[in-house]
Each structure stands twice: as structure tokens, then as C-alpha cells.
Fold this protein.
Amino acid sequence: MHLQTDGVKCSLTQAQTVTCHVGYPALRTDQEINYNLQQVQNKAEVKFEAKSDGKEEKPADNNVAISIPLVYDTGVILSRESNINFYVVDSPPPPKTAIKTFDDIGPEFNFTVKVSRGTFPVSLLYLAIALPMTTKGGNELLYVTRLDTDGGSVSCDSSSLVDPLKLSTKSHTQTFSPENLRQTDKLDCKSVKCKYIKCILKDIEVNSNYFVKVKTRIWIGTFITATYQSTELTPSISVETTNPDLLLINPKPPSRVVLAVSKPGEKGDIPVAVIARSVITGLVLLALSVGLLWKFGFFKRKYQQLQKEADDDQPSRPHDNEVL
């Protein structure tokens, strides 16, 4: 194998080794060597050796070796789409507890995950979908009703998550307990309990798309009984290669599917910190006002005026030589 570009001659001297003669008889600036690796490597070892026609006193000074770590952008793209991104809870309490069909649970919240591959040779991917399922108070959030895949060899481990109550064959009684969610801006895996759908994408073809469709219902009873003004129900999605440190996916997942949930008419709490800041600010302004009035003599003039009025109100005393 020989490569020659702009005076640079390269040859494959042994397996995975390319030797290049750069700048003979003289080295020029901005000379480049472009070489495409036929196999994925985690590093490249580059050795430079400078030679001259004269005799070198220290030949070792003309050698340097550099190890360059390699990573690869796989060109895999992760995207998602949902049927709704905003929901208003306007049903009055108490919530329905007799669950006979999916409609008794609440509204549909469905989303589709799309994984697209470019031209980089990636044959296996791991997809994970995190679903926020239960609050800290034990109230249910999402109920998975169905999961479908499309686009090739995609297998998902979700049998324990899809319709666990078997509502297609029997009814169920669900209970909901009041819960304060005012301080919970996001119902995600950091604030609630999540369950995971894990999928394997095999034999991925060049320039192909793969889909995972998740259908759920929102446990509306939880959001009817809970106390909050607005929050976000946030499933997350991530995809990895077999070697995530070497084969990268940019931008790096996870990606979120955000559903904003609001409850009109719910009164919001005034944080204690806001009250404390307001009181302190008021006291500071009062102190400044008093200080300015004192500086400009307001209290002195007022005192003198009051003193004068007091003197005028006192009856005059007779002199010693005055005849009564």
C-alpha cells in the first residue's frame, strides 16, 4: 500500500503501521497526512524521526513518540415525539377509584423514540427508557398499556411493565393519598421511583431508522388529590454503543420527554425565605428613612416646635412688684 500527497510518500510497512517520508530533502510548513483507519482503534501511536546527511552527536534527540487517544462520532441520532406536551387537571375530587378500563385511569400519554444510524459501522445499540412510575408517597404516575417496535431487529424487555393489572380481563380498585408536590418541579428519576424499558437494536443497517412506541395512561387520580400548581412528568431516554468510551453518540443522551401538568385554582405557598427577605428589607428601609430625617434636622425642628408650643401654653407668673 502506497500513499503520496503533496510530496509526502507513505507505505504500509507492516500490519497497522504506515511509514511516511515527509519533506525530503527539506521540511516544509503545513504539510499534512490524511489516513483513514480501516479498523476502529482506541489510540494511534505516532513516531517522528528527523534525519540529516550530517553526523548527529545525539541521534536520540531526533526521535519522539506520541500516543493519541481516539474516539469516534458514530453519527447515531436519538429523537422523540409525544402526542401531548401539556395537560390541565380540571377534574374535581374525589378521583375515580374503580378501574375497569384504561379510560378510567386517565388520559393517554404516548411517545415514540426514534434511533437513526448514519454511515459509521455500528451494528449493536442499547436503548433504555426510564419511566417515572411512583411518587415518594406511593401514588402511581404512569400506567404502560402497550409497547411496539418497528424498523428491524429490535427487542425490548417490557413484559412486566405492560398492563400489569390485566385490565383487559378484570377490574381493579385503586387508592390515592393526598401528597404535597409543591416543591417538586420535575417528576423524574431523581425525585420519584422509575422503572425501565431496556431494548437491544441488532444488525443495524446503514442510513436506517428504528422506532420504539410507548403507550401509557396518566394516573389522573394522583394529580387530582395532590397539592401543586404545576409540575413536569419527565420520562428520559438514553442510547449507548457496545463501547461508549470509544464510540460516542453526540449530543450525549439522555433525552427527555416532558409533559407539563398544571392544576388551575391551586393556591401557592409563599416561601419562608421570601417572607423573611421582605421583613428585613422593610426594616432596612425604615432605618434608612429615620436616619435621613434625623440628618436633615426633621426631629430637631419638630422638638423645638413642640417645646415652643408647650411654653406658650403655660400661664405667665406675676413679678414681685406687681400688685395682685
Observations:
- Helices lie at 102-105, 220-225, 272-295, 298-313.
- The chain has four helices and 22 strands.
